[in-house]
Amino acid sequence: MNCLICGTAFQPTPTWRLLFVYEKESSTCSRCYSKFTKSDATIEFNDFQGTVYEGAVDAITALYSYNEAMKSYLHQYKFLQDVALAQVFAKTLHEAFEGKEGSVVPIPMHPEKLVKRTFAQVDELLNSAGIPFQHMLAKTATSEQGKKTRKERLEASPLFEVTARIEARNYILFDDIYTTGATIHHAAKLLKDAGATRVDAITLIKG
Amino acid sequence: MKEQLQQFLTGRIWLREHTPFPCEAIDAHIESGHIHLKPGIQTDEDQAFFGQLKKYVCNRCHNTTQHLFHTFHCARCNKNCTYCRHCIRMGRVSSCSELLLWNKEHVSYANDHEFAWNGQLTPLQQKASEELLTSVEQNKSHLLQAVCGAGKTELLFPSIFQCLKQGKRVCVAAPRTDVILELFPRFQKVFPKTTIHALYGGAPDQEGFAELILATTHQLYRFEQAFDVVFVDEADAFPYYADETLQRAVKKAAKQDAAIHYVTATPTKTLQTTNQSILSRRYHGHDLPVPRFDSLWGYARQLNKGKVPIKLQQWIEEKTNTSTPFLVFLPTIEMLENFPGDLPRVHAEHPDRKELVMKLREKKIPGLLTTTILERGITIENVHVAVVGAEQKIFTSSALIQISGRVGRSFQYPTGDIVFFHHGISREMDKAQAAIEGWNRS
Predict the structure, then answer these.
(1) In chain A, which among 30-59 make CB contacts under 8 A with chain B?
(2) For residue range B100-135, what is the model confidence (pLDDT) as tens digits?
């Protein structure tokens, strides 16, 4: 195996699990993988109390924190469009969704942006982890979140619209990065307003 | 616009999304047949035992290593699309991306060149330089084997000037950015009227048509049938000899009948050329400093514990006290990062490598810890060198010869200390020492 990030050949550590149970093999060498820091903490979002978004999301989990390694990972994955890198976190993502009930809803991209980037980075992460998902939202706003302040993000007109019938069930939102929380809260509020009983959120990174 | 396009694209093979020109201008030139389009990835069907096997080739970097291709469902072409991961840092080339090639007449360029070099060659340099010039005139490939600090670059000047005068397009390629950065100002001084571009990762945009291009070998992925003459400097440097696609890139960048000349201190067996010359003396005529071996048993364990081995500590202190600039080469980035103390350190991913080397030159810092990244191309007056863990695999004989070549390069300080600290002597260390002693004898 060659490491997806640094390209050097490496031996995945043999384990009994790997021999008897189906398990995703790691696609990076341990040196590259050890540079990412796991956070695995639930995110506090008290700052949304008192706004219209209060109670929209029930719990948010982020798997990794943002650091230099993650920055260069995102650069190569999103900016250089190295789709293969979606596999790097396949195993962790698979474990994170294990035992969770509810249908997975990825945060969508604007169709024009999607054609430009040639792939939806959020969907590809789920695909490589083998997690079934369903698009229930569509992005309506074309402007980028990254260039706005938190206040501007929250006051922005709805970013999404609901495209499928929402039932009284659990839903799990998934996005690549949680920065101010505006995206997740916008999406969660839409789902709740349409009748969802519970909305959780999982993001790969806490920005 | 046409002229700019022509100047830019002549000899190049360029990803459409990355051109600095408006889309309409490119479309118009494709329509008129001035620009030829090539698909990014070519798929060859290989006959295998069971049915057919797909084999991908990247049309830009000519990579054929199949595990470096990745296929995904592309939202742009709405099909399964394959891209090359090998050259992805230069912008992704996928099945649905288009590569532009200039199809029509190439730029006719001015032959008005000036040769502003008044340095003196030593008799040995002179001889090698003339041999190279003869080969260049006969368009025969030439291997110039010259020891570190022999003044290789100067030898090239007459040959390059000769080519430029004949209206040829010349490329000087080297595997490392540091080397290109060092060569660029020197060439600009020697050829003041020539348009010269320096191409390396992160280089600024440069306008006009360059008759002389200085480029890292990586940048040659972006050229096709461009040069009448190519000189490959430091042909023994990593990653050039280890990466077959780089060797192919040099051949691809040269025109079909162009000769490729190599300059190196330690030729590998695979370098095949018609003519050869050897330069085994430094330009100042002194012997090459011969490395000495010194045992440093269990250095890895001590460094792991956060202790600098006593011998190494003494060496560093002695150099600091006599204010002699020094370099300490370490085998791995981990060892470099975990080295105790606060000595400044550089490695390949380090952002201010250039600044730190400058500081060492100006004696603002006592010394530098480094990986093999600084093994070649840098000249620091009166520098002394220690290699820690010289027996490790990464220190091949050619790397060790290059490292030893950092010492004693100037007229004032033709000698200096070069020591290999080791945990057992390797064959490669012996080879390097023997080679250096051999040159001193000849």
Answers:
(1) 31
(2) 998 877 676 666 788 988 888 888 889 999 999 999
Residue B185 CA to residue B347 CA, distance in Å, equals 24
- Helix axes of B427-441 and B397-404: crossing angle, nearest 10 degrees: 50
Q: Do the Cβ atoms of B76 and A2 come within 8 Å?
A: no
Q: What share of chain B is helix, strand, coil (3-state, %, to 5)?
A: 30, 25, 45
Q: Is the Cβ of A119 closer than 8 Å to some Cβ of chain B?
A: yes
B73 touching A (Cβ < 8 Å): yes
Q: How far apart are CA B57 and CA B391, in angstroms?
A: 38
* All structural domains of chain A with their residue ranges: 1-34, 36-206
Which of B233, B253, B256 minimizes the C-alpha distance to B245? B253
Nearest to B177 by CA among B373, B397, B398: B373
Residue A119's identity, in one-letter code, is F
Give the amino acid at B110. Answer: A
**Domain locations in chain B as residue ranges:** 2-102, 123-279, 292-441
The domain defined by A36-206 folds into Rossmann fold (3.40.50)
Closest CA to B142 of B161, B154, B155, B151: B155
Sign of the alpha-carbon dihedral angle for B135, B137, B138, B141: positive
CA distances from B250 to B118, B246, B264 (A): 31, 6, 16
Q: Report CB contact under 8 Å: B85, A84.
A: yes
Give the tens place of pLDDT for each residue, B216-244: 999 999 999 999 999 998 887 777 877 88
Spatial separation of the C-alpha atoms in residues A109 and A115, rounded to whole Å? 10
pLDDT tens sequence for chain A (207 residues): 788 988 877 877 777 877 777 667 788 888 889 899 998 677 888 888 888 888 889 999 999 999 999 999 999 999 999 999 999 999 899 989 988 889 999 999 999 999 999 999 999 999 999 999 999 999 987 767 667 777 777 776 778 999 988 989 999 999 999 988 888 999 999 999 999 999 999 999 998
Min CA distance, B16 vs chain A (Å)? 14
Helix ranges restricted to H, chain A: 16-20, 30-33, 68-74, 90-97, 111-117, 121-129, 150-155, 182-193
User: Beta-carbon neighbour count of residue B242 at 10 Å?
Assistant: 11
From the list A2, A82, A115, which residue is nearest B75 (CB)? A115
Chain A residues touching B74 at Cβ < 8 A: 118-119
Phi-psi region of A185 (alpha: psi -120 to 50; beta: other; left: phi over 0): alpha
Size of interface A-B (CB pairs under 8 A): 36
Fold category of B292-441 in CATH? Rossmann fold (3.40.50)
What are φ and ψ of residue B275, in 5° steps? Answer: -115, 160
Give SS3 for B43: strand
pLDDT tier at B19 (50, 70, 90 boundaries)? confident
Query: For B123-279, CATH number?
Result: 3.40.50.300
Strand A137-139 and strand A160-162: the pairing is antiparallel
Instruction: Compute the distance between CA of residue B295 and CA of residue B423 in angstroms, rounded to an integer.
Output: 6
Strands (E), B270-333: 275-279, 292-295, 326-329
Name residue B320's amino acid.
T
